[in-house]
Specification:
Organism: Brevibacillus fluminis
CATH class of the largest domain: Alpha Beta
Mean pLDDT: 93
Number of strands: 12
Order of helices and strands: EHHEEHEHEHEHHEHEHEHEHEHHEHHHH
Radius of gyration: 21 Å
Strand order of the largest sheet: 3-2-1-4-5-6-7
CATH architecture of the largest domain: 3-Layer(aba) Sandwich
Low-confidence stretches: none
Helix content: 40-55%
Keywords: Transferase
Protein name: Glycosyltransferase family 1 protein
Shape: globular
GO molecular function: transferase activity
Largest sheet: 7 strands, parallel
Structural class: alpha/beta
C-alpha cells in the first residue's frame, strides 16, 4: 500500500484538529508496525504538511511515516504521486481536496476526503461537497450522526444504497490512552475539581460554567473551575478574559498533550458544554474531542445533550446538563464515591472505541478491502 496523508495545519499546536490528525496518523503507523517485515516493506506512508514536523514532538513518534514540508501542498502531492503512484491520497479538509481534484482530476480516483463539516442550507458549500462526491473515491465523516444525516440527504437525491454505503464512511476523532501505571501515580483532587479543555468560543458555554462554579462554591468553597485552552476566538476574547478572572476560575492557558491528560485525571470531572445556534446544527451532530478525551481517561463528563453526545454516551446518560443548576446538582452527586466510580467506569467503557488502536481498525479495513488485501 502506498498512501499520502495531508492536512493544511498552520503549525503544530495541542488543539483538536492537530491532535486528531496526528493521532490518526500515529495509529496508522502502529498498524504498519504490526505487519510482518516482508509486508511492511511494501508500504509507503508519506505525510505532506505546511510546516516542518519534528518526529517525536509531544509524544508523536512515527516509525514508518516520512514527513514532507511544502508551501504548496497540492503541488507537492501531485509531484510525489508522479514519482510514487500512490494507491490513496488522504486529505483532511474540503478546500485542499478541491484544490487537488481541480489541479489533476484523475487523482480523484485515489482521493480519501475527510469532511470536517458541511451545511445543508448553504448552496455554495453543498455545490463543493457534491463536486467532491463525483470526484472522490471515499468521503469520511467524523461522527456517525453527521454521516447518517448526509446519507439521508443522498437518499433524497435518489442515490442507490450500495453506492452510499461504499462511498460514505465514518472516521472518528482518535484519542491516545494513558497507561494504568501513569494514571495510578496521579492523585485525584479531593474534593473533585471541574476542568474544561479546548478552544474557547461563544457556543462552548463559558458563562454557564462560571455561574456553575459560583453555585458549587457556596457548598464546597475549595472547588475550582480549571480552564486549559490553546486559543480564544478573537471576537470573543474581551468577554472570555473577563470570565477567566472570576472567583473560582483557574486560568492555565495552553498545556501540552500529556500535561493536559494529567490535569484532567487530577481534577476528576470534565466539562464540555455546547450551545449550538448554527443554521443546520452541524456542531451538535459532531463529537467534541474533549468529550472523547475525558471518556478515554475514565473521567465523568458534564456535557449538553446533543446528537453527537447522545451517540457517544447514550440517550439516558445521567450527566447531561442544560444550565448551571444542572451542573451543580451533578457535581454534588459525583462527590459520592460509589456514584463517581460507577460513572467513571461507564464513560471509560464507552470511550474504548475511540482509542487509537481501536478506532483505526475500521479505517484499515476500508483501505485493505479497497485494494483487495487480506484484512
Amino acid at each position: 500500500m502506498k498512501i499520502c496523508f495531508s492536512c493544511n495545519l498552520e503549525k503544530y499546536k495541542p488543539k483538536g484538529n492537530v491532535l486528531q490528525f496526528l493521532g490518526m496518523l500515529k495509529a496508522f503507523d502502529h498498524e504498519v508496525s504490526k505487519l510482518p517485515s516482508k509486508k511492511r516493506k511494501k508500504f509507503v506512508v508519506d505525510c505532506v504538511l505546511p510546516f516542518e514536523f519534528q518526529n517525536g514532538h509531544d509524544g508523536f513518534k512515527f516509525h514508518h511515516v516520512r514527513f514532507h514540508k511544502a508551501d504548496d501542498l497540492t503541488d507537492k502531492i501531485v509531484k510525489q504521486d508522479e514519482k510514487k503512484d500512490y494507491d490513496f491520497i488522504f486529505i483532511r479538509g474540503r478546500d485542499q481536496a478541491l484544490d487537488l481534484v481541480k489541479k489533476k482530476r484523475s487523482l480523484g480516483d485515489k482521493l480519501l476526503f475527510l469532511s470536517i463539516n458541511y451545511n445543508l442550507h448553504d448552496p455554495r458549500i453543498m455545490k463543493e461537497v457534491n463536486f467532491l462526491l463525483r470526484h472522490t473515491r471515499i468521503i469520511f465523516f467524523q461522527s456517525v450522526p453527521i454521516a447518517e444525516r448526509f446519507k439521508a440527504y443522498l437518499r433524497r437525491k435518489k442515490w442507490g444504497e450500495d453506492r452510499i454505503e461504499r462511498q460514505i464512511k465514518v472516521l472518528p476523532q482518535f484519542v491516545e490512552a494513558m497507561s494504568e501505571e501513569k494514571m495510578l501515580r496521579i492523585h485525584r483532587a479531593t474534593p473533585p475539581q471541574l476542568i474544561n479543555c479546548g478552544v474557547i468560543r461563544p457556543r462552548y458555554g463559558l458563562p454557564v460554567a462560571v455561574k456553575a462554579i459560583h453555585l458549587i462554591r457556596k457548598r464546597v468553597p475549595e472547588a475550582k473551575l480549571n480552564l486549559l485552552y490553546p486559543s480564544i476566538v478573537n471576537a470573543y476574547r474581551p468577554t472570555a478574559e473577563k470570565l477567566l478572572k472570576k472567583p473560582g476560575v483557574v486560568n492555565h492557558g495552553q498545556k501540552n498533550v500529556w500535561e493536559t491528560k494529567k490535569m484532567i485525571v487530577k481534577a476528576g470531572i470534565g466539562m464540555a458544554l455546547i450551545y449550538d445556534n448554527t443554521p443546520d446544527l452541524t456542531p451538535s451532530h459532531a463529537y467534541l474531542s474533549r468529550v472523547l478525551e475525558y471518556m478515554a481517561l475514565g473521567v465523568p463528563v458534564l456535557t449538553t445533550r446533543t446528537f453527537g453526545n447522545i451517540h457517544l454516551l447514550g440517550d439516558n446518560y445521567p450527566l447531561f446538563v442544560h444550565d448551571e443548576h444542572d451542573i451543580a446538582r451533578c457535581y454534588h452527586k459525583l462527590n459520592e464515591p460509589a456514584y463517581y466510580a460507577e460513572m467513571s467506569e461507564y464513560v471509560r467503557e464507552r470511550g474504548r472505541a475511540y482509542l487509537g488502536e481501536n478506532a483505526i481498525k475500521d479505517f484499515w479495513k476500508v483501505l485493505t478491502t479497497e485494494l483487495g488485501m487480506p484484512a
